[in-house]
Design goal:
The chain is of the alpha/beta class and 565 residues long. Helix content is 60%, strand content 14%. It has 4 domains: 211 residues, no CATH class; 50 residues; 146 residues, 2-Layer Sandwich (Heat Shock Protein 90); 140 residues, 2-Layer Sandwich (Transcription Regulator spoIIAA). The strands form 3 sheets. It has a 6-stranded mixed β-sheet with strand order 8-9-10-11-12-13, with helices on both faces. Strands 2-4-5-7-6 form a 5-stranded mixed β-sheet, covered by helices on one side. Keywords: Coiled coil, Kinase, Membrane, Phosphoprotein, Transferase, Transmembrane, Transmembrane helix.
């Protein structure tokens, strides 16, 4: 602008109209320089430069006029000059807008390119990282592949060894199998031979124990017929020896009978046993030896007053242990015998402890329960008591423990397994009838499955009578729901023969079970039975269910027990 004013001041009279546009075109061209030099982010610099450029372009004529070198110039009219100014102004804005548009698009592209470059850079870094990971994994896979190949070789070698051992084992197995077949055959033969010998031994024991009873009884009878008054001293001694030997032989045969009975498992039925009653019986038997001045017997059975087991065996166990405690008491001190009873979920536990002579368990542990073994010889005994106790315990599904110290004490603890089913212990089981024993109410019962024949009817009642005699059961239940029709002859046989004999052995209550007991004909029939039984001293009731009959007998038992007390 200064150069334009200066040149026009020197050559003002010589100016042409183009001289007024030359510098204006330079200013117009210079308008693109800010857009070139500055970024759109440098808004302050860009705006200042553009405003300065625009101001110079607009004020071009005013500045020149101020310095006295303004337009007009001869040869160009004012209208043309003004139009040229308008064109230059429009050109300025078009040029500036185009440059700015290009500038903005270029910078936008640059920014986009930078972002893309950043993303590419980041992607390259990620790819480099992934590539490094892949390379590491590749190296690891190579190492594992080598290890796998090595392990595979070892596995193949091991597999070859296994196959060899398998073949060897198969060969041994075949040999063992053939040997096992031979052994099994030998074992079967030995077992059959053992069974044969065992049966022969049982038969021999049975023959010895029973066939000797007759001759032995005759011998005892003959010896008792001796008139000892006419015998001299030597013959009397011989006669006494004969009697003593015969009596000892009789005791051995009786013991042998007991052992045979236990081993043949004839005692299978479990009854409710009052320990108080059994101990009272034992005390009465041993009352001559139970001198209260010399012996104290302490009984503690409150926690287990009753057991369900085989009465003769329980009696025998307690009798043998208590009699041993009396027999082997220490003479220098007052004897103390403690009898205790308790129970757990599986066993009844009976204990007999004394303060007697004691047993040297280290010396006699292995032979303590053997037959005819004795450990004190200053008293009488045959050495069969403890053997029977152990045998009976095992027969009842239990075991025995012993603790003892010489000259201090001996304690025997008996474990008797509790029976699983005491309500339905089968005594006889056939398609037409079942005979059972219910230990909870002390009753023999029959469940008929008729119709039945006269022979079956009588056979079942004969067997039932035998069980009533054996267990002295005061109660009898008959489920006659499916019995069928019984002839008058069979009924009279039962009323006149079976029931009177059963009543003699303690039968006191009879119950019949029939669902349609209220039917008129059936009631008359059962009332006739009731009338017949009342004459013979038995109480009779009719019920519609087995539970009702069982409850009646349980209540009757409790009432009878309370009356005794």
């Amino acid at each position: 602008m200064s150069l334009s004013i200066y040149s026009k001041s020197l050559y003002y009279d010589q100016q042409i109209d183009l001289d007024y546009f030359t510098f204006r075109f330079i200013i117009l061209g210079a308008s693109i320089l800010p857009a070139v030099l500055f970024s759109t982010r440098e808004k302050a610099n860009l705006i200042v430069c553009l405003l300065l450029n625009f101001t110079l372009l607009i004020s071009h004529d005013f500045i020149h006029a101020a310095f006295g070198v303004g337009y007009p110039v001869k040869g160009i009219d004012l209208q043309t000059y003004n139009f040229a100014n308008v064109v230059i102004g429009v050109t300025y804005f078009v040029l500036l807008g185009s440059v700015l548009f290009l500038k903005i698009n270029l910078e936008r592209g640059d920014r986009k390119n930078l972002r893309l470059l950043d993303e590419v850079q980041k992607s390259n870094e990620i790819l480099i990282f992934k590539n490094n990971e892949i390379e590491a994994q590749h190296q690891e896979l190579l190492a594992q592949s080598e290890k796998l190949a090595f392990n595979q070789e070892k596995l193949l070698a091991a597999n070859r060894v296994i196959e060899e051992q398998k073949e060897l084992l198969s060969s041994h197995n075949k040999d063992l199998q053939s040997e096992l077949v031979e052994k099994n055959q030998d074992l079967s033969e030995a077992n059959a031979e053992l069974i044969k010998y065992n049966n022969e031994l049982r038969q021999f024991s049975y023959t010895i124990s029973h066939n000797l009873r007759g001759p032995l009884a005759s011998l005892l009878g003959l010896v008792s017929l001796f008139d000892k008054k006419i015998l001299d001293g030597e013959n009397l001694t011989i006669a006494n020896h004969i009697l003593d030997s015969a009596q000892r032989l009789d005791g051995i045969v009786k013991d042998l009978n007991k052992i045979i009975d236990i081993r043949n498992d004839i005692f299978k039925i479990r009854q409710q046993i009052s320990l108080e009653d059994e101990l009272l019986i034992i005390q009465n038997v041993l009352k001559k030896e139970l001198n209260p001045d010399q012996i104290i017997m302490d009984i503690s059975i409150d926690s287990c007053p009753h057991v369900y087991s085989v009465r003769p065996m329980v009696h025998s166990i307690l009798y043998n242990l208590i009699s041993n405690a009396l027999k082997y008491r220490a003479p220098e001190r007052k004897a103390l015998i403690n009898v205790k009873a308790s129970q757990n979920n599986d066993y009844y536990i009976l204990s007999v402890e004394d303060n007697g002579l004691g047993i040297d368990l280290e010396k006699h542990q292995d032979s303590l329960f053997k037959l005819y073994k004795r450990f004190h010889y200053h008293t009488e005994g045959k050495g069969i008591g403890l053997y029977l106790v152990k045998l009976q315990c095992e027969a009842l599904g239990g075991y025995i423990e012993v603790a003892s110290e010489l000259n201090r004490f001996t304690q025997f603890t008996i474990y008797l397994r509790k029976p699983e089913n005491i309500e339905r212990q089968l005594l006889f089981d056939e398609p037409h009838a079942k005979i059972f024993f219910d230990a909870s109410i002390n009753a023999t019962g029959i469940i008929w499955k008729g119709p039945i024949t006269s022979e079956q009817y009588r056979d079942v009642f004969v067997k039932s009578l035998g069980f009533v005699k054996a267990f002295n059961t005061p109660n009898y239940i008959a489920d006659i729901s499916e019995q069928g029709t019984i002839t008058e002859e069979d009924q009279q046989w039962m009323f006149k023969g079976v029931i009177p004999e059963a009543i003699q052995f303690g039968l006191r209550r009879i119950a019949s079970v029939k669902p349609d007991v209220n039917h008129e004909l059936i009631r008359k029939y059962l009332e006739g039975i009731n009338s017949s039984l009342e004459k013979q001293g038995a109480e009779y009731r009719m019920f519609e269910s087995m539970d009702e009959a069982t409850n009646w007998m349980r209540e009757s038992n409790e009432l009878e027990l309370s009356q005794k007390k």
